[in-house]
Amino acid sequence: MREIPFMVRNKHFTAIQQVASLKSAYKFNNSHWILRHHGFTWYFDITPTPISDTYKLKIVYNETFYPLVYVVSPNPLALAKGATKLPHTYDSKKQHLCLFSPHYGEWNSTMLIANTIVHWAIEWLYYYENWVYTGKWLGGGHGNWDADYTIRDNQHSD
Questions:
Q1: Ranges for the Type II CBASS E2 protein domain (predicted)?
Q2: b/e map of 14-49 (b: 16 or more CB within 10 Å)?
Q3: Residue 15 near residue 114, CB atoms below 8 Å
Q4: pLDDT at site 1
């Protein structure tokens, strides 16, 4: 008798499957959904730690693209002393978070947003709050996102 191998999931999750997974995993208050034929926009409030501020996030997803995550409020987000823009974002003014690199295939539609993107956004907020306080970005990623204290603190007028 031939052995049947375990089935490996390599199919893409549809937008409706992503929504069902998110609604099952997260029961946030003040959550708002805009559903489209092949995508959705989800607004929700999150508090990363018991001593954190509360943030309103927006996840925009279309099946033909990867999820986009924005901090809707507060807007603007506070900056670390000496910083001129938010760390590790695609667009600092739009508060569009950089949670993964699409170029390296770190996220694809065979993954559930509930198991990846939401967790990564919460983690980004955690590191953001530490960055505001310390000026050091410890959240990883590419580039140096540390705020430069030396230029601002060592300037003096004659």
A1: 19-142
A2: ebeebbebbeeeeeeeeeeeeeeeebbbbbbebebe
A3: no
A4: 53
Phi, psi of 106 (to 5 degrees): -75, -15
Q: Which residues contact 63 (CB under 8 A, 6 or more apart)?
A: 12, 14, 15, 38, 39, 109
Choices 3.10.110, 1.10.287, 3.90.70, 3.30.300: CATH for 15-154:
3.10.110
pLDDT at 15 over 90: yes
* DSSP conformation class of 5: P
| Spatial CB neighbours of 39, under 8 Å, sequence gap ≥ 6 | 15, 60, 61, 62, 63
Interatomic CA distance for residues 66 and 95, integer angstroms: 17
- Give the pLDDT score at 141: 84
Whether the CA torsion 103, 104, 109, 115 is positive or negative: it is negative
Q: What is the pTM of this model?
A: 0.85
| Domain map (residue ranges) of the chain | 15-154
Report the C-alpha gap between 23 and 124 in whole angstroms: 21
Look at the block and give the residue holding tokens 């956004």.
121
pLDDT at 121 over 80: yes
